[in-house]
Every structure is written in structure tokens, then in C-alpha cells.
DNA sequence: CATCTCAGTTGACCTAGGTCATTTTTCAAA
DNA sequence: TTTGAAAAATGACCTAGGTCAACTGAGATG
């Protein structure tokens, strides 16, 4: 199984496409490998690509004006990730993207995406569905932030992404759920969470 | 100018459509009027519709397990609103939708949307763009929640939605930015925010 | 005009989570 | 196998924001 299989399945789960259509999509992609801790995107750069994770894991995060890092999303394999704000507007974003482990990814640039969608409008549906799902997840995250305690958010995170947990440090999980590492440590003391 | 003009402009800002295509979209819509405080959607109902606000204002909110209300989004005229989670999955959601003032809306049901997209795939693009934008806004909201103080979030909210402020109570603004009404009151004391 | 309800304010006190510096543990690289 | 750096734990203290109840005030309703 090559590096495109995972993406092909991901697409076929959502829309029906012919071999030719699929080939054209794949033809537009650029494959890249990143080593652990390698930066894929820096703050104030324009996010030119939609990035599909074939293997490995990537986080997006921002550095606030106190210098604190906050993890926004964590993308394991079979997920797309980008700085959506920057990607959509074509303006510099405020997110970093960084590989958490050795990662293989497929990049679809905005221009290539436009080519793709112009030539095979069917893929509009694929991206609409992806974006709807991402939007729904993002909304739920806001809800959780407003209505759950840190411990509840942690439990939910662990339940939602059990496979990702092991490749994350406590600091990273703390950052994702929105607490400091030291509070996180105290919070889980005595409890068996993982 | 009738009730469909606003939507037509909204669409034409994003994609090019013929009169016929536009007419078909409009043909699928159901127009509804809501009075102040009228519930459009209740928790644990399925959100069958995408709702376009022609005039008035609608909020989406949830009630957490302590009985507290949290406002998730506020949609003034020219915006779409729904419980995206429920709408996309077709399962019962956990949001309420409520008119904040007398409101005229255009409803597009999931089935009608599917008809529309099947017949005129061009509209896929319209909904993809809408959803991308909504997703970007949602992501930014999470970022703000993680990295700003309550006062900073308030200032940002006021700057972003100046026209909406006047039709909201302090309690509602407090709920949107995620603080209690009493803290909100203290927080703005002495400051001229509005 | 009276009253009722609900938004907003305020006082007194509380707590979830933050800060910062120090220590201990883990784990990758030489 | 050692070593060095980063992750995690922890003590002492701090603060943003919450809680709850009492009070004020203004617009709606009779």
C-alpha cells in the first residue's frame, strides 16, 4: 500500500470518483517528509497548502502575546490540517504547524486546489464535507471550553483521541485543553486518566 | 427590494449564477417569521434547516449541566445559522436557536439542499466558502478563548460586531464572551466600552 | 398610577487555575 | 554508560473570575 491509498479511501468514504478523477487529484499533490519537531509553517507566513497527514502527527499552535504556546489542533494520520484563516484569505496567518514525530504528508496548494475544483467540481463536495466536519468539531470545542472544567475537557480529549495521546507530552495535552503544565500535573495526580 | 435580494447578493458575492439557477435556489426556500424570544430550535431536536437571516437577529446557545446558558453564535441579518453538528449528522443536537428580535428568515432544509446541490453543483462552492469562513471564525474564537482575558475578548467582540451590540443585553454579551453577568458588570465599571 | 419583572450593580467571600522557582525524573544522544 | 536537556512534580503564593444574596432601577403590563 503506497502513500496515496489512505487519502484515496478518505475521499471514497465521502464521494464517488472515477480512477481518472482520482489520478488527477493525486497528480496535483506534492509529497513531503518532515522530521520530529520540524516546522511546516511559521507564524505570519501565508498558509499556501492543505496538508494531508499520511503517517505521523502534526500540531497547529499559536504563541500569544505573553509568549505562551497554545495548541489549536492535533492532526494524526488520515487528517487534513492547515491554518484555515490564512489559507482561505491568502493573508499571513498566526499559526505554526509542527511535526510531532517523523511525518509523511501530501500537500495541496491553493492554486492546485482551484485547478482541481475547476476541472472536477465533484471535489467541491469533498471539501465542503471536510470543512463542515471540521467546523462542527471546532464549535463543539468552544462549547466544551465554555461549559466544562479542565478535568472534564481532559477526559473528553482522552476519550476522543486515545491513539494520539501516547505521542503527546503532558505539556502538549495541557496546552490543548487550555491549562498550564503545572496545573495539569496537579490535576491528574492520583487519578488514572491514561 | 424583497426578502430574497439580500440572499441573492450574498450568493453573487461568492459565485456566479444565472437567473434560472438563482430562481431554483429561491424556489426551494421556505420563508418564516419569528417574534422576539421565539424558539426556532430546541435542544435535542434535529436541526433540519440552514437558516438565512433576512432581518432581525438570532442566537444559538446551549444549556450546560449546571443549567447555565452559553451563547455560541449570534447571527444578524445576512448570515446563515444552524446547529451545524446536528445538521451535518442528522442526529439530535444540543443547541437552542432563538430570535433576539422580530426576525424574518429563509430556511433551506437538508433535503432541499441536497436537491439543490445535485441539480446545480455550482452551489457546492457557495456552501464550501460559507463553511470555510465559519470554520475560520470558529477557530479564531478558540484562539481568543485560550489567549485573551475576558476584557480583551469583550473589546474584540465590540469591535467585530458593533451593529449587533445594541440589540443585546449585557447578560447576553457576558454569555458570549464567557463570563458571568456579575463579573461582566464589574469588569466594565468605569470603562467606556460601548 | 401601581406593580411586577427582569437587567444591572454591588458587597463579601470563594475557588479553579496561574505563577515562579526548585527539585526530581525520564530519555535520547554520545 | 554517562550525561545533559527537557518533561514532570511540587511547594508557596497569587489572581481572574465565580457565587450568592441583597439592592437598585427601568421598562412593560394591569
Task: Summarize this structure briefly.
2 copies of one chain form a homodimer. Chain A has 194 residues and is of the alpha+beta class.
Commentary on this structure:
The structure is a homodimer of 194-residue chains. Chain A has 194 residues and is of the alpha+beta class. The first copy, chain A, has a domain at 5-121: Jelly Rolls, CATH 2.60.120.10. Chain A is built from nine helices and eight strands. In chain A, the strands form two sheets. In chain A, strands 1-8-3-6 form a four-stranded antiparallel β-sheet. In chain A, strands 2-7-4-5 form a four-stranded antiparallel β-sheet. In chain A, strand 4 and strand 5 form a beta hairpin. Chain A starts with a helix and ends in a 6-residue tail after the last helix. Chain A binds chain B through residues 62, 64-66, 68, 70, 72, 84-85, 88-89, 94, 117, 121-122, 124-125, 127-128, 131-136, 138-143, 145-148, 178, and chain B through 62, 64-66, 68, 70, 72, 84-85, 88-89, 94, 117, 121-122, 124-125, 127-128, 131-136, 138-143, 145-148, 178. The first copy, chain A, binds a DNA duplex (30 and 30 nucleotides) through residues 149-150, 169-171, 179-187, 189.
Layout of secondary structure:
Two copies of one chain form a homodimer.
Chain A: H1 5-12, H2 19-28, E1 30-34, E2 39-41, E3 49-55, E4 57-63, E5 69-76, E6 80-81, H3 84-89, E7 96-99, E8 103-109, H4 110-119, H5 122-147, H6 150-160, H7 162-165, H8 170-177, H9 181-188
Antiparallel strand pairs in A: 1-8, 2-7, 3-6, 3-8, 4-5, 4-7
Helix pairs in contact in A: 8-9
Chain A binds a DNA duplex (30 and 30 nucleotides) through residues 149-150, 169-171, 179-187, 189.
Amino acid at each position: 500500500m503506497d502513500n496515496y491509498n489512505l487519502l484515496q479511501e478518505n475521499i471514497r468514504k465521502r464521494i464517488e470518483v472515477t480512477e481518472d478523477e482520482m489520478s488527477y487529484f493525486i497528480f496535483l499533490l506534492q509529497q513531503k517528509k518532515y522530521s520530529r519537531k520540524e516546522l511546516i509553517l511559521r507564524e505570519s507566513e501565508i498558509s499556501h497548502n492543505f496538508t494531508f497527514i499520511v503517517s505521523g502527527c502534526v500540531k497547529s499552535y499559536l504563541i500569544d502575546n505573553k509568549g505562551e504556546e497554545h495548541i489549536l489542533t492535533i492532526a494524526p494520520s488520515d487528517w487534513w490540517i492547515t491554518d484555515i484563516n490564512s489559507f482561505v484569505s491568502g493573508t499571513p496567518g498566526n499559526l505554526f504547524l509542527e511535526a510531532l514525530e517523523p511525518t509523511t504528508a501530501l500537500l495541496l496548494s491553493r492554486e492546485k486546489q482551484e485547478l482541481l475544483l475547476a476541472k472536477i467540481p465533484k471535489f467541491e463536495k469533498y471539501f465542503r464535507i471536510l470543512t463542515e466536519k471540521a467546523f462542527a468539531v471546532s464549535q463543539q470545542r468552544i462549547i466544551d471550553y465554555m461549559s466544562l472544567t479542565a478535568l472534564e475537557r481532559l477526559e473528553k480529549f482522552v476519550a476522543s483521541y486515545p491513539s494520539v495521546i501516547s505521542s503527546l507530552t503532558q505539556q502538549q495535552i495541557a496546552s490543548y485543553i487550555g491549562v498550564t503544565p503545572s496545573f495539569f500535573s496537579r490535576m491528574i495526580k492520583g487519578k488514572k486518566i491514561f
